[in-house]
């Protein structure tokens, strides 16, 4: 019997996406915008591993969080020759790894750091629009800064990015902020909240009753209409802030006011990760349904010590790149598509020996040159030139080459066809670049 059975094609893992042209050009465009803004605020790039010891995230993010309890891709590595296997995890977020690296390399000893990363994160969530199992974040971490000044800075860095992308603040994206105070203030509030919930047992649903001691703040996050009035009247963390926390929050607000950034104080904003204190914030949109948080962050003064370093104040955010691109698409804010400046038609492939030096010289001069490869008739090459979106076609025909020239024909906005010397690219390369 012959073995000619066709193999089934394989598919990507559910919730993990391929990013292919032309979509990938939008990613590169977004990343370039991000890097440009980050550089203007003095943030430097860090590249840390995607796989870390599971314990890092358990310790860093918190054991009783959705991320660690339900969403993390954790596995046991192969055993070494002593039969020992490491517990490893795909990073579900970026902060823990960056802090681990800073502590490991004693990078916070001499000076504070402003850092950023761009890369994939992994969470085993139910895939849907704006929620994936492999997704990408741009994140920043400012380590060693205690004041409200840098809280305002990280928020404003995001605002500058929105503006450069064409998003309108207060309309497409809005800022919500809250102050979580310090652990002792949270404890006092927590006790008050639990006794408040105990007094309102009759309106609590089953889930609320289950959570009221483990995570009472989450009870207030309820979508149950029968519990809304109860949630509205609950003691608010903001009323439990001591003078220092209050001053910090007022400081952030004054700085945001000074640059005309409007925000909404959301007393229920608590964030899903355990490590936050004082300022927390989210940039949200109402244009993407349930996946409305584009950028989320806050202060995490306890994390560096929690991960074995010297106590170091810190603040940062994580920005979901898929959601940001979805938002731009929804609003019709498209990135410029990448097209070559010129398409080189090569009627006789044998002539490439004479043509290639000219193409290389054009590329060295900064011109994006798409070279026709694979032969074919003049007409079919010309069609491809047109489809490429190039603004000019270069025709290296036999007549032109005999004169040591190439024809330069504008494809888009009219203009006349010209002849140019192939040996002296410097005199005309600049005419091919976009204005
Ligand atoms: P959500 O409430 O939407 O689950 P989160 O609080 O879990 O978000 P963070 O851990 O703060 O999110 O991550 C920062 C940002 O990363 C989010 O605001 C969002 O833009 C993006 N993000 C988080 N999880 C996903 C995911 N599974 N797919 C795509 N983007 C995500
Ligand atoms: Mg989540």
Q: How many strands, which pairing sense, and closed or not: the largest β-sheet?
A: 8 strands, mixed
Tell me roughly what share of residues is in helical segments. Answer: 25-40%
Rg computed from alpha carbons, rounded to a whole number of angstroms: 28 Å
Total domains: 2
> Looking at CATH, which topology of the largest domain would you report?
BirA Bifunctional Protein, domain 2
The unreliable regions are none
Bound molecules: adenosine-5'-triphosphate, magnesium ion
Supply the helix-strand structural class.
alpha+beta
CATH architecture assignment name of the largest domain: 2-Layer Sandwich
**Number of continuous helical runs:** 15
How are the strands ordered across the major sheet? 1-5-6-11-10-9-7-8
CATH class of the largest domain: Alpha Beta
CATH superfamily of the largest domain: Bira Bifunctional Protein, Domain 2
Supply database-style keywords:
435 residues; alpha+beta; BirA Bifunctional Protein, domain 2; Rossmann fold; 2 domains; eight-stranded mixed sheet; five-stranded mixed sheet; binds adenosine-5'-triphosphate; binds magnesium ion
Protein described:
The chain is an alpha+beta fold and 435 residues long. It folds into 2 domains: 23-181 and 241-330, Bira Bifunctional Protein, Domain 2 (BirA Bifunctional Protein, domain 2); 342-432, 3-Layer(aba) Sandwich (Rossmann fold). 35% of the residues lie in helices and 19% in strands. It is built from 15 helices and 16 strands. It has helices at residues 23-40, 54-61, 66-71, 95-104, 148-165, 183-199, 206-211, 216-220, 228-232, 243-258, 303-306, 321-330, 352-364, 378-387, 398-402; strands spanning 44-45, 51-53, 74-76, 87-90, 113-122, 134-143, 174-179, 263-265, 277-284, 293-299, 314-320, 342-345, 369-371, 392-395, 405-410, 418-421. Strands 1-5-6-11-10-9-7-8 form an 8-stranded mixed β-sheet. Helix 5 packs parallel to helix 10. The termini are far apart. The model has no long low-confidence stretch (mean pLDDT 94). The structure holds adenosine-5'-triphosphate (ATP) and magnesium ion. Adenosine-5'-triphosphate (ATP) binds next to strand 6, strand 10, strand 11 and helix 12.
